[in-house]
Structure formats: structure tokens, C-alpha cells
Write a structure and sequence with these properties.
Blueprint: H1 5-17, H2 19-26, H3 31-39, H4 44-56, H5 68-83, H6 92-110, H7 113-121, H8 128-133, H9 136-150
Amino acid sequence: MAVQWSSMYVMLHRAEKIREYISTFLHEKNIGKQKKLEKIEFNECRMGDGKNTQQAFLSENGPSLYIGLPAFKALHHAWSKQISKEKYSLFTDALQAGFNKLSDYYDWTGNSLAHVFAMILNPREKIIHFEKHWSSDLESKVQSLAEEITY
């Protein structure tokens, strides 16, 4: 699903205007439901996983294309741990859907010559990510690709 940024802006602007009513609506009066809501505790770090990954792609100070694969890998790892945790059981379906979509993006990005080559050209990354996180077969393909492009 594509994000329509103008629609998101309109939605957030509207939510800000009716914030008082939203707050009233969100305060659950049913004690049983309220206890369930209180049981669900998201710490800043876990909720920030997606935000941190998004921010990795938004570098204004320099190139950020090479960060793509490691950022996807880190978020993929974090969500895979959360799916099996009891405190996130109410969100298992949503986490699984996000995890599946993230896996697709990771695969697409890994198949992108631009992302792969941007990592190889980055002096800090070079081939380290591929050696560490990819199978030897896929790493060999990256090596061959790099040689093919540069020669």
C-alpha cells in the first residue's frame, strides 16, 4: 500500500483539531478493557524500531542508500523477536503482516543493484554486511556482481 503523504497530512491536521474529543474517546470506561489496555506496555525502544529504520533512510547530511539493507535487517530481527512475545499477542497478526512485508522489501532491496553496490562502495561497509548476514552463495553472487560492474 502506497502512503499518500497529502492524505496523511490532512488526517493528522484533523486529528490535532479534534484532539480533545479523541482523548475523551480513548479513555476506556469498561474496567476489563482498561486492564487489558494497561497490560499492553510498549517501551519507547520497541515502538521506535520502525521509526529508527525510517530515519536511517532520511539522512540529510550525506548519502544513505548504503544503509538500506542493514536497516531492514535490524528491523526484521527486532520484529521477529516481538512476534513470539506474550505481551504483544494482541498484535501478532499485525506484526506478522508487517514482518512479511518487511521480508519482501528486504528481498527486493537485496536484489537491487543500486543498494548492493552502494554498500560495496561505502568505505565503512564494503562487503562486511554480506559476509556477516548472507549465505556464502549469495555473498559470492555479490562478489561476482561487483567484479562484473567494475571491470
